[in-house]
Write a structure and sequence with these properties.
By secondary structure, the chain is of the alpha/beta class. Helix content is about 35%, strand content about 20%. It has helices at about 15-30, 40-50, 65-75, 90-100, 115-125, 130-140, 170-180, 200-210, 260-275, 290-300, 315-320, 335-345; strands at about 10-15, 35-40, 55-60, 80-85, 105, 160-165, 190-195, 215-220, 230, 235-240, 245-250, 275-280, 300-305, 330. The radius of gyration is 20 Å and the shape is globular.
């Protein structure tokens, strides 16, 4: 059941009383109720049972019991949306929280209006997610177990294709699922634009690198796109690809709502690769990436979208489907096999 923003009940977990107070003040100033606090993971597990909150903000590094173990226990006992909240120094560990069942990761907030709004927006969106139903559809509790990649011989010329993935909230889980089921011999490069805060891209890339036989890197200026390698759009840059198969990084457009921009990357893929482009749009808020998917389809490329049931947030992929930008709408579990079949062909 979806909750009204005015009736969202939050449990705040952090070993710092100052951070807990800051998060409480931010949420309550926006009409969101904080029903309880916990200063370590063990208390968090107990409070979830007692208070039945709509969502939990979870610190990662805590005494007694850390956030990762707490997330795993909460998801196993009483599935509830969890937002991992971390300092930049703990970003790599924070993405392990996604493997345990957290829906998203965000930097610990400060008092700037922009950061406060990000926290409030995440809380309002994630509190609506039915975690138990999502786990049932995705077929997992905690970290997905990668399927053994099939033996694969690339078709002649298949390395000239490029796969471009656009994602936002719920994207890290979906991207990890897809990449973990592709073999090291995958015959095309993959470029990814995931909405993420500055300072988080490297941690996400390192985490993804441990879940897939592919090589995952943060894209750098002048990189030559190579089959079997995944290039993640740095959060602070607008990323484009050239017809020669190289990466260019520019300044992000401050006027855009979402960063990095999925449309910027996908538009360049459409122009540079035309019928050889493969666009994939996954879970996320808003409509970023929709125009880029439309450009890929108009150029003769293949477009795939994650379906509603397997999405944490059926937002940008929903808009893309409604506007006719998606050739195939698939459960997340079917996307890796579809990529194998279509890129091989």
């Amino acid at each position: 059941m979806r909750k009204s923003a005015r009736h969202i009940r939050v449990l705040v977990v952090d070993d710092s009383a100052m951070v807990r107070e800051m998060i409480r003040a931010i949420l309550e100033s926006h009409g969101i109720e904080v029903v309880g606090e916990a200063e370590n993971g063990a208390e968090a597990v107990e409070r979830v049972e007692e208070l039945n909150p709509d969502i939990v903000t979870m610190d990662i590094e805590m005494p007694v019991m850390g956030g990762l173990e707490a997330i795993e226990r909460i998801i196993a006992r009483r599935p509830v949306p969890i937002l991992a909240v971390t300092a930049l120094t703990g970003v790599r560990t924070a993405f392990a929280a996604v493997s345990k069942g957290a829906l998203d990761v965000i930097e610990k907030p400060d008092i700037s209006p922009q950061n406060m709004q990000k926290l409030v927006q995440k809380i309002r969106v994630l509190a609506r997610v039915d975690v138990a139903a999502h786990l049932a559809v995705s077929g997992r509790h905690g970290r997905p177990q990668p399927a053994a990649p099939p033996a694969f011989s690339p078709a002649a010329g298949s390395g000239k294709r490029l796969v471009a993935i656009a994602a936002s909230t719920g994207g890290p889980q979906a991207i990890s699922h897809i990449l973990s089921r592709l073999p090291a011999s995958f015959p095309a490069p993959i470029v990814i634009c995931q909405h993420i805060a500055e300072g988080f891209t490297r941690g996400m890339a390192e985490w993804l690198n441990g879940t897939t036989p592919l090589s995952v890197v943060v894209a750098a200026q002048g990189d030559t796109l190579t089959a079997g390698t995944v290039y993640v759009n740095p959060a602070e840059h607008a990323m484009r690809v050239t017809p020669q198969g190289t990466v260019t990084l520019g300044e992000g457009d401050a006027k855009l709502l979402y960063h990095p921009s999925c449309n910027t990357l996908l538009d360049s893929v459409a122009v540079s690769y035309r019928e050889r482009a493969v666009g994939v749009i996954l879970s996320g808020m808003g409509d970023d990436g929709v125009a880029g998917m439309q450009a890929i389809r108009r150029g003769g490329g293949l477009t795939l979208g994650q379906d509603a049931k397997s999405s944490v947030i059926y937002g940008m992929n929903r808009v893309a489907a409604e506007r006719g930008c998606v050739e195939q709408i698939l459960p997340l579990s079917d996307i890796p096999a579809e990529l194998m079949a279509r890129v091989a062909g």
